[in-house]
Every structure is written in structure tokens, then in C-alpha cells.
Design a protein that fits this description.
35% of the residues lie in helices and 25% in strands. With 507 residues, the protein is α+β, with helices and mostly antiparallel strands. The strands form 4 sheets. It has an 8-stranded mixed β-sheet with strand order 6-10-11-18-17-16-15-14, sandwiched between helices. The longest helix has 23 residues. It is found in: Cytoplasm. Homodimer. This is Lysine--tRNA ligase. Belongs to the class-II aminoacyl-tRNA synthetase family.
Length: 507
């Protein structure tokens, strides 16, 4: 007889087997309800008298020598993830929400024949079970509770997947609750995300920023070039837009005197979904009066490096595939036009004729974007020539003017704006601006965007008169940035976007 918790290899149950198991488990549920007493509480008691948690017991007694007894009685509850019933002694592994486990040993001598038989007949994998008894270490050194009392805390009527096997990615995202039960990485990612958000807020607090919330339902979309989701408000009998960005409202806050402001919340964009894009995603935006795109780049680097330290203990992070990636040090700052010219082997500037850009794109096999304009084609060519070669975290500086309607023109270089995109792990992680605060120029930019929209560009912005009215009351020089929280998790963990979102949208 042995108390090992190593499982035999088991295949995933078929649909027919699941149906049969559910029927058996439902019968056990009925039995528990029929036999309910005040002490037992049936299949779903309102509470059980726990005195400890599994993680706390592991921390306190994790170093017990094999065969040691403590004389301490503890009462805990956990999910049964392994069970073996043999004669006069049964074993089960109980798992807490954080994935830590303790072994429950149910013996004839300790609980009596009736209770032992009930355990064998009623307890299944996946059940939440309460146990009480002495904390010991088994002969094989497994931290255990020698059970003197037990009861069902919650009866599972569907079987778990094999907790020692691998769920497919599709199964993981469609049934995240199962993923959290059976896979350490899933739980660790949830914890990592919480640590990242806490770190971001702590860094902002250290710089005297104020966190606010802005509307998710808006009368018109703005703040980014993206296709919105449209809904209808019955109370107002009006179409509304799920926000694509909080930018225009956060800038109103700066106009109102909240000089350092940020928001972490959801954005919605009615566009494609792939390994780096989700229609619904978490976004951080921040604005600092009397700063510019250089100052906000410094702040962004600090935010990300602090978040990495909060998760990994260091700016050197280890991705899911085992790759180490360095987020520390001072990050490179690269001119978009200069780097494109060097990679393409020819000088490209804001004055380069559009037809020459088209010819270069066609020669390189770069698809022309719909409603192509000069700046958009420059960006597409940069992504073709330069982006694949970026390895270190890099701020790509000084973008074309005509693709950046909310950004201030460069103070010394004609035809570009003071904007950067931050690339980490081969994808855009964040973007930052010296914000355009001149209401006259901003109105002109909105008019040009409206012309693009009239020609069929679904991502173009509309004229936002309320935002312009706010600007007309005076907005100080400001630096602003936006960063995807899901992508920040991707940069730190090496996972895809659907793995970093707890419950991603799936069809």
C-alpha cells in the first residue's frame, strides 16, 4: 500500500462518458441532499468550519520530515484533483485556488467504517471537500492531514479534464475556469496581471498622477484612428459608440486643471482579431501637463521596467518559451525617416513624391493600404524594411504629419510630428505624443479627417466640437501616452494576447 499522488495516464473522457459520469454524480448529489443533516449540509452547504488555508499550512509545515507528526489539528477545504481509494486507507490531493495542494488521508481507524465507505462512494474528482484532522508528513514526505472528520463542500456534477494533461489553446480560452484549475501558467498570468496594474498605479502615484474614469459610451468616436462598435441608447433614442480611446476626455481633464491624469480601462475596436489584437482590450492612457514626448517616453520606460520587476523580480524577464528578454537599461530612440532611408538604401523624407513611394512599395511587394496617403505609405514601408530587425525595446520617433491628427508638429523638422511608437518583442506596445493644443490647427486636422471619412475611410476621425470648445479654453503644453495592458503582459510573459486576457472574446 502506498500514498503516492502520481496519477496513471488517463485519456480525456468522450462526450458519452461525460454524460454517463454526470448522471452518476447527479445521483450522488440527490443522495447527499436526502441524507442532509445540520452538520453535513448536503451537497452544497452554505459554509464549512475551516480554520486554515492550504497555502498557509504549506508555508508553516512544508519542511516537515517524512513521517513527522505535529499534534496540531487543522480544518481546510480544497478541490479534489487526485484520488485513490484502497482498502482501509484512501488518499486525495486537495487543491487551493492558488494551485497549492495538501494530501488528505482518510483511514478506517480515524473515521470509522461508515464514514470511510461514504468517502469512497460519494467523493469524485472536482468536488470541493472539507477535511479536519492532524497535520502530518506521510511516509513519503507528503504534507498531509490525517482526517478525523470530512464533508462535501460543493459537489461537482461534471468531471474535470485530466489535470496532468494539456488543454488545447481553444479549450483554454473557451473554458478559462477549467484552465485556471488545471494549469499553473493560467493562474500565474492572472497574478502577473494584477501585479502589473498595481505597479503601474504605484509608479503613477509616485509622480503625483490622479486616476480617473471617462465615458465608454460616447456620442461620437475619437481619440484614435479605428473602426468603432455602434450601439443604440433607448433612453435617448440615439446611436452611441463604444469608445475606441479615452484620449479626448482625458485632455478635457487636463484643460480643467488635472495636470497629471491617467486611466486604466477598456477600449473597443471593431477590427480584426489576431495574436496581438483583440476587439475588447485594456488600455492605459496618461497625460502630463508641461511635459512633451521625450518626458512621457522616460515615464513610459519607468512604468514598464517597474512592472517587469513587480512580476519577475528583475528587468530581465523569462518568456513562456524559456527565452530571456532584457527590459532594463536606457532604450534606443530611432528616427522613422532616417531608419527607413538607411534600410531602403535611398533618402526618404516628408517631401518624397507620393508616386515614388508607391513605386517602391510595389517593387518590394508591400500592399498599398486602402485610402493610402503619403504618411500611411511611409509607415507601411517602415514596417516592411525596419520593424523586423528590431530586437531591443525601441522608441521609433517622429512620424508623418498626415497620419497623426492629434499630435503637435515637430519643433524643428518640417512635415513630421512629435510622436513615438514603442516596439517591444516585435510589436507596438505603446505610443506617445507631444499633444496638439492649438484649437485652430486641431480643427483644421479634424476637417481633413472628415474628408477622409467622407471618402469611405471607416477609421478616420470626425469633428468633435465639444473637444474643440474645451481646447479653446486653453490646454497647457502636454505629453501623452497610451499603452495596451494586454500587450504589456505579452512583453513580460511572452504569451499571446488571448492568454493574457482572463476571458477573451471568442466566437
Amino acid at each position: 500500500m502506498t500514498d503516492t499522488t502520481s496519477p496513471a495516464e488517463t485519456a480525456e473522457p468522450t462526450e458519452e462518458e461525460v454524460f454517463e459520469q454526470k448522471a452518476v454524480r447527479l445521483a450522488k448529489r440527490e443522495r447527499l441532499i436526502a441524507e442532509r443533516t445540520d452538520a453535513a449540509g448536503g451537497a452544497y452547504p452554505v459554509s464549512v468550519p475551516i480554520t486554515d488555508t492550504i497555502p498557509a499550512l504549506r508555508e508553516r509545515y512544508g519542511d516537515l520530515e517524512a513521517g513527522a507528526e505535529t499534534g496540531v489539528t487543522a480544518s481546510v477545504a480544497g478541490r479534489v484533483v487526485f484520488s485513490r481509494n484502497t482498502g482501509k486507507l484512501c488518499f486525495a490531493s486537495l487543491q487551493a485556488g492558488d494551485g497549492s495542494r495538501i494530501q488528505a488521508m482518510v483511514s478506517l481507524a480515524a473515521v470509522g467504517e461508515e464514514s470511510l465507505q461514504a468517502w469512497k462512494e460519494l467523493v469524485d474528482l472536482g468536488d470541493h471537500v472539507f477535511v479536519s484532522g492532524e497535520v502530518i508528513s506521510s511516509r513519503r514526505g507528503e504534507l498531509s492531514i490525517m482526517v478525523s472528520d470530512w464533508r462535501i463542500a460543493s459537489k461537482a456534477v461534471l468531471p474535470l479534464p485530466n489535470v496532468y494533461g494539456e488543454l488545447s489553446e481553444e479549450s483554454r480560452v473557451r473554458s478559462r475556469f477549467l484552465d485556471l484549475i488545471v494549469r499553473d501558467r493560467a493562474r500565474e498570468t492572472v497574478v502577473a496581471r494584477a501585479k502589473v496594474n498595481a505597479s503601474l498605479r504605484a509608479t503613477f502615484a509616485g509622480h503625483d498622477f490622479i486616476e480617473v474614469e471617462t465615458p465608454m459610451l460616447q456620442v461620437q468616436h475619437g481619440g484614435a484612428s479605428a473602426r468603432p462598435f455602434i450601439t443604440h441608447a433607448n433612453a435617448f433614442d440615439a446611436d452611441l459608440y463604444l469608445r475606441i480611446a479615452p484620449e479626448l476626455f482625458l485632455k478635457r481633464a487636463v484643460v480643467g486643471g488635472i495636470d497629471r491624469v491617467f486611466e486604466i480601462n477598456r477600449n473597443f475596436r471593431n477590427e480584426g482579431a489576431d495574436s496581438t489584437h483583440s476587439p475588447e482590450f485594456a488600455m492605459l492612457e496618461a497625460y502630463q501637463a508641461y511635459s512633451d514626448y521625450n518626458g512621457i517616453a522616460d515615464l513610459t520606460q519607468e512604468l514598464i521596467q517597474n512592472a517587469a520587476i513587480a512580476v519577475a523580480g528583475s528587468t530581465t524577464v523569462t518568456w513562456a518559451d524559456g527565452t530571456e528578454y532584457e527590459l532594463g537599461g536606457q532604450w534606443d530612440r530611432l528616427s522613422m525617416y532616417e531608419s527607413l532611408s538607411e534600410a531602403a538604401g535611398r533618402i526618404i523624407t516628408p517631401e518624397t513624391p507620393f508616386h515614388e513611394l508607391v513605386a517602391l512599395a510595389e517593387a518590394e511587394g508591400v500592399d498599398l493600404p486602402p485610402h493610402a496617403i503619403h504618411g500611411k505609405l511611409v509607415e507601411e514601408l517602415w514596417e516592411h524594411f525596419v520593424k523586423p530587425g528590431l530586437t531591443r525595446p525601441t522608441f521609433v520617433m517622429d512620424f508623418p504629419l498626415d497620419t497623426s491628427p492629434l499630435v503637435r508638429e515637430h519643433r524643428s523638422i518640417a512635415g513630421v510630428v512629435e510622436k513615438w511608437d514603442l516596439y517591444v518583442r516585435g510589436f507596438e506596445l505603446a505610443t506617445g505624443y507631444s499633444e496638439l493644443v492649438d484649437p485652430v490647427i486641431q480643427r483644421e486636422r479634424f476637417v481633413e479627417q472628415a474628408k477622409l471619412a467622407a471618402r469611405g475611410d471607416l477609421e478616420a476621425m470626425r469633428i468633435d466640437d465639444e473637444f474643440l470648445r474645451a481646447l479653446e479654453h486653453g490646454m497647457p503644453p502636454t505629453g501623452g501616452m497610451g499603452m495596451g495592458i494586454d500587450r504589456l503582459l505579452m512583453a513580460i510573459t511572452g504569451l499571446g494576447i488571448r492568454e493574457t486576457i482572463l476571458f477573451p472574446l471568442v466566437k
